[in-house]
Amino acid sequence: MIRSGRFARYDAAAFRKDLVSGILVGIIAIPLGMAFAIASGVKPEYGIYTTIVAGVLISLFGGSRFQIGGPTGAFIPILFAIVMQHGYEDLLIAGLMAGVLLVLMGLLRLGSLIKFIPRPVTIGFTSGIAVIIFSGQIPSFLGLKDVQRHEFFGANMKEIFLHLSTLNFYSVALAAIGLAVILISPRLWPKVPGSLISLLVTSGIAYVFFRDQVATIGSAYGQISGSLPSVHVPALTWDKIRELAGPAFVIAMLGSIESLLSAVVADGMTGSRHNSNRELIGQGIANIVTPLFGGIPATGAIARTATNVRTGAVSPMSGIIHGVFVLVVLLALAPLASHIPLAAMAPILMMVAWNMSERKEFGRILTSRTSDSLVLLLTFLLTVWTDLTTAVGIGILLALLLFVKRMGEMLTVAKVLPDPKIPQSQVSASIAAEGHGCPQIEIYTIEGPLFFGAANMFEKSIMDTIHDRPNVLVLRMGDVPFMDTTGESNLASLVEHFAKFGGTVLVAEIRTQPMEVIRRTGLYETIGEERFFDHTGDAIRYALTYLDKKQCLSCKRAAFRECAGLSQAVPSPDPGAAQPSSAGVSG
Q: How far apart are CA 54 and CA 46, in angstroms?
């Protein structure tokens, strides 16, 4: 009995549950593996090889107890583009390189970084991939002849339109029956995969009633081999590595996103918790080994993983069993698979596309009419009309720019004064707005992150609102949660400007992170330790003493009354105010 790790408390009863789950998931994986391979532009058996090898290795070395790995629909447009541009042999090299990248990502503990990809981007490209998969099955559904597949959506749609005259009514009827079976069978036989029932029914109908009237896997791709191929190491050269670095990176990125999303789904269904870095390493190992057997890139399959959980899986053993089961079927029944009509595969992939389309979430984000709607729509359109690399890159960049813009708009700079009318008041902007104040002292409250997206506005806001040149500028920074070096540079520029004209800057209530930044850059010493205060009242009292020593209060009598009045309205220290970590000295 295995009693440690992911097999803790494993026994015969647990094995029986894993055996049932593994067989059921394997039944689902067989038609999907072939369909994904065909849609990716390679022979159907390559999808079966991937299901076997990657399925076993991902379960063995991955970080989720319930993850089922193999070829997935999300990879279809990427793999097809690589096959079109470089060929099948180079696809194997790109997959192997992607595996190396995934292992490195796991070793460098980058698994947690995947969650920072904005959801509108993931929903956008996932929905775009669903459109590409769905539209790619139209020729098989309609039985069109001599249709050339192209890399881009527009060219494929044009190709379909030009060949509509070759429509095969036998294919349409067969595909329609298959689609109906997929939709109806869950109500009649909820425990049996609808895709398998559809495949058996439609293949039987085609074989008995119109055997030579529709294209089959055998007529299109030849007989499926009944064994795994021998190990073949792709020819790696530096030129090939440089040429395929981009495609390999895209495969690795999408594979990491897809696998970790699948692991999160499994966590939500079971209450377990996966190890994201170990999951990336497991995915990497699988993608390094699979190409040696002719398999295409693999990742975690969300639908098959969810099925694995629902059917009672206990441990990674169910994923291993699923791969072994597919191998047994390949060895025993491979010749029969050659009789499967392509029209029977089309509705299966169309339903895969429909289920992965995230249509509800897509509609929810789109109707929100926020900046996320723009990111979603742009990513979706670019995925469909260009390629996934462009779509994800531009989508993330746009999301970043819009985020920076929103964060920059959160920064506010307000001129304030102590308000004696309100009990226990700190300061009030309304008093300053009424024209009160001391021409020698200006007090400003800064609220929001002081970073590169807002730093220039911070300096400009203060300079634009200071009409006279005060001797003392008090900056209340208790509501500045974050500062970067750009924000620090603008603050330093403000300090330098006031020092040039004999003035001084006092800083009150600064938080720990901004304080650490100005300490590291040396601005803390430039301002002076004695000019940092825990409370605004201490800063004002220091300012009045400073002005008195400079004999600045003997200016105009009215101005003197305003400045001296500050001392009577100085706020008491607020126990709830933000505190620095030993920021400075109270005045």
A: 12
Decide: 151 and 171 in contact? Cβ < 8 Å. no
Answer for the pair 288, 103: CB distance below 8 angstroms, yes or no: yes
Residue 523, phi then psi, degrees to nearest 5:
-65, -30
Beta-carbon count within 10 A of 538 CB:
21
Are the CB atoms for 475 and 505 separated by under 8 Å? yes
Q: Which residue has the tokens 């430039």?
A: 526
Q: H helices then E strands: how many in the chain? A: 25, 7
Q: Helix 276-289 crosses helix 44-61 at what angle (to 10 degrees)?
A: 140
Q: Give the residue from 6, 17, 24, 104 showing the smallest Cα distance to 326.
A: 24
Whether pTM exceeds 0.90: no
Residue 143's CB is within 10 A of a number of other CB atoms, namely 23
DSSP track, 441-473: EEEEEEES-BSTTTHHHHHHHHHHH--S--SEE
Q: What are phi and psi of 67, to 5 degrees?
A: -65, 135
* Amino acid occupying residue 419: D
Q: Which residue has the tokens 């500050």?
A: 566
The answer to whether the CB of 513 falls within 8 A of the CB of 481 is yes
| pLDDT by 10-residue block (mean), the chain, 587 residues | 60 90 91 92 94 96 94 92 94 96 94 82 91 93 91 91 93 95 90 86 91 88 84 89 94 92 88 92 97 95 89 92 94 87 92 89 91 95 90 91 86 76 53 57 89 84 73 90 92 89 90 94 93 88 78 48 55 47 35
Six token digits for residue 143 = 């039985």
